């Protein structure tokens, strides 16, 4: 897939003391693409994700997200991206409706459009009956679906998903991916990390990180061909970790 | 030989929420017995009851021949338990964690080192590092070493592979298999369906009920329909098209394809014509063998139909 | 036993590896002693005094002049009636008021005796003591002067000292027993409750419960390091106050240490009790601060004298262990009394300790909920 690039990373380096978390990363992500960002634990995914979402500053390199430089315009970037991670995204002690209103408010939606979007969203998710329920009482799958909807409530250009489906049941997991596909079809770029290797195959392109470096980046089909493997899991196991210490 | 675990009609409620509902199963000596199910299905509650940490509301749980309620004191010497959040002291080093758990369980690292040598050797180079600074995969290996160091007869592992990358997961399962040599039985829970194939037997669990208990191959084979693997250039359109196709029973995305079942277990030329009409390209259709996850989805659908109201 | 020692070793590792804990345990007591101590030792220079001269004669003018020229005092105001005293104190810059009785000079000449009142602001006991001591000394030397110059043979000015707001004027070294009481509660109750709930929060308690460790071993293992640290702390505080401020312990050191250990045990068992009712560190901290620290500061007699409190607070303070401990160590340290005078309070502390221990052993859960 080619098109307009929305994330452009050139020679990104991030060091913590002596430790190099990101070692000269270079890649592009295109508009409307579902980009799978894979890697073993500790490979440097989280660091890269934080730099892209403006939470961390790179040590060196040129990183632009939605057309803005991450070191200079991180505030503008934040307006153009959505972010959802597995551990925290919604407030457990607020209701479904309160969470939607909260995030809508944070992203500066006015009352009128906020109400419209809230109702639309509840309808889409068939969530009307849960409107006044506390998040803590929802099953994990529903929570994650709601968190995703809230992450894109302000129509961002890019949405970052950090292990969004961890521990979710197989049916809900697939429903979640259908939401992702639908969102991508509207032109929103999806940047997603996951430990489920079958989900990697749902992406348009994937990159695999190992020890701070990107060791492979291509469509799932091409990667499988290149490594003569039947699944991405086989590719991953083969290249995600260099020979052990 | 008597079973390692004998669970009869175990039920447990928390307030209004039923966490476990009439759960019965047996685990045999030297088995790796897997509980496969999503978060919130009741795996952790069940494991805590087996580990004598929770009392069931009703039913009987016998572990290693002892009642888990009345015999908890003797039982606690015989089991190794690794809770979902690896229970390590983040501010102690790798070595200190291991030594501490050995002492607490009245064992010594030296006498049982042979048991963990295989696993611990991966992290030994970092033995002076604080546990809090280890990566997920290394934490998991350390936690397993700590749970094993007193040579338990039964190892209880609650989601040891959650959040751990595919490479570490593969290594981890290979280690579990080697424990059989030492006569250690293992029960393990996981949300990753593909890991089921590594178990001797698995129980599929959902909403506090066991859907099925069997050897993984048998679970796979009990898939009730013929399954077809359909591929096309655009996955999302393919799913939508298949869902609208009148002969389709189920259509779930699986990796690079869509696993589909049809009424009457077959399809004819009208399917390809239909898909092409929908604008899809590079369509291939072939029959495939169902996996554990296919069977799980089928069982979930069935149980959903039975008690839709109870799910949410 | 090996299990227990293994556990204690682990606890020491936790403590020594956490820099912040070490600061709390050793830094805060030292800082408190030094801060309180230096606050007490301020010398007077130019302390503000007001004069209510109801006599206005030659002698009162001479005495006033002597006081003001001493360099220790400056006059803030001349007062004209008793009613002004309260007002001038409330302004704050006046530390004491000197009141010459009516017909001061005449009384002194005729009867050889005259009265002067020194009224000090007792709400700052330390400076009040210093101010009145200095004033009394000046009056005494004036007496001698009068005798020498023969203005009045055997004339005697009798200074009468009155403390406003804090009539009994507790000793200025009250802060040492107070700091000990406070620090022990802080370390023992707060730290133990936090370290136990920390294990609950991080999930390590699950594995400890599944292990063959008995509840009593877990509890003792948690408590032992803090017991030793606390005893060490008491010794450190006493040493500091002796070395830096020359504060001696008048009574028996052995007795003092023994009751301190009892008090430490009490506070530790209170900490364990707190941990059995809280599930998060936040709760444990909150309960320790509100339930233990605050009453220690407010209700133990550390800062505010219990006798002056409304009845209800008096009853409340009766159930606060620190109140009894403060009485005991005050008696031993400052008055130098023996066990005979403090056995009642000691017994009450002992009873509270037993109560807390048995409650926490009963409440300690061998399973999760």
Overview of the molecule:
The complex is a heterotrimer of chains A (245), B (312) and C (369). Chain A is an alpha/beta fold and 245 residues long. Chain A has nine helices and ten strands. In chain A, α3 packs across α4 and α5 packs parallel to α6. Chain A starts with a strand and ends in a 6-residue tail after the last helix. In chain B, strands 6-7-8-3-9-10 form a six-stranded mixed β-sheet, with helices on both faces. Chain B has a four-stranded antiparallel β-sheet with strand order 2-1-4-5, covered by helices on one side. In chain B, strands 12-13-11-14 form a four-stranded antiparallel β-sheet, covered by helices on one side. In chain B, a hairpin with a 2-residue loop joins β4 and β5. Chain B is 35% helix and 27% strand. Chain B has 312 residues and is α/β, with parallel strands linked by helices. Chain C is an alpha/beta fold and 369 residues long. Chain C has 14 helices and five strands. In chain C, β4, α6 and β5 form a beta-alpha-beta unit. In chain C, α7 packs parallel to α10. Chain C is elongated and about 90 Å long. Chains A and B meet through α5, α6 and α9 of A and α6, α8, β12 and α10 of B.
